[in-house]
Write a structure and sequence with these properties.
alpha+beta; N-terminal domain of MutM-like DNA repair proteins; Helicase, Ruva Protein, domain 3; four-stranded antiparallel β-sheet; 29% helix; 22% strand; DNA-binding
Length: 258
Amino acid sequence: MPELPDVEVFRRYLDSTALHQKISSVEIRKERLLEDVSPDDFKKSVEGNEFSSSHRHGKHLFARLNSGSSVVLHFGMTGELKYYKDPADEPDHARVVFHFDNGYHLGYDNMRMLGKVALTDEIDEYVENEGLGPDAGRLSFEEFKDLLDGKRGMIKSAFMDQSLLAGMGNIFSDETLFQAGIHPKRQVGNLSEKDVETLYEKMMEVIEKAVVCQVSDFPDYFLINYRDEDAECPRCDGEIEKIKVSSRSTYFCPKCQK
DNA sequence: AGTACCACCTGACGGC
DNA sequence: TGCCGTCAGGTGGTAC
């Protein structure tokens, strides 16, 4: 699930549920999800604190503690957050659970465990050490143009490259390319100035719309509703095709994406 | 530098 | 019903 829009929705969810409440304890149910910190140290740094604010960079969510450190959450392919009171409402794969003084719990659920949970004193430093590019949602057109300048290879690969720009994944890269009418395998070097402009505008639009609809009930003209081989293209009378691009499933319309 | 493939994990689904 | 292969919205390492 989680690409930039999903994680932004998680961030807002965290803000509206779990801020400003004392964390009485944390349960680490899968130690392997912790990155560069022992369960003991993690617990010591978190317990007794409150989450005071949040930040998102690409697909990484940072939950700041009032101590100044931040809990880092990365969701892999199957992660999500759930805030609940009744233990019966605990999600099926809660790998890390924050327990609050008010009786509620925040579960970091992650079936496939491809994500990670970490701790950092400096968000900027963490982002830099991870080698992440600028956040795709907070990027000016000039910055976007500069990123692509001199890049080679396929445009979809560029979108997916977290070190180039952070946040776009498989689904929303396909979506942006579809909305822009550009073939996922187009070489970056072959894009016209107009193409680059369209890509930027559509990327921003796709991100914004996806966040506004909370990553469900997407607008009808979104490709995401038609990720099926042989589905009808929502923009023309073509048929959606499925191919592999950098070994990821890619859906596009050969008729309106050139 | 770019790409292709494997690995890490778990679960759902379709075919036989 | 059961087994098996395939696939899934991410990423890191490795080898061409």
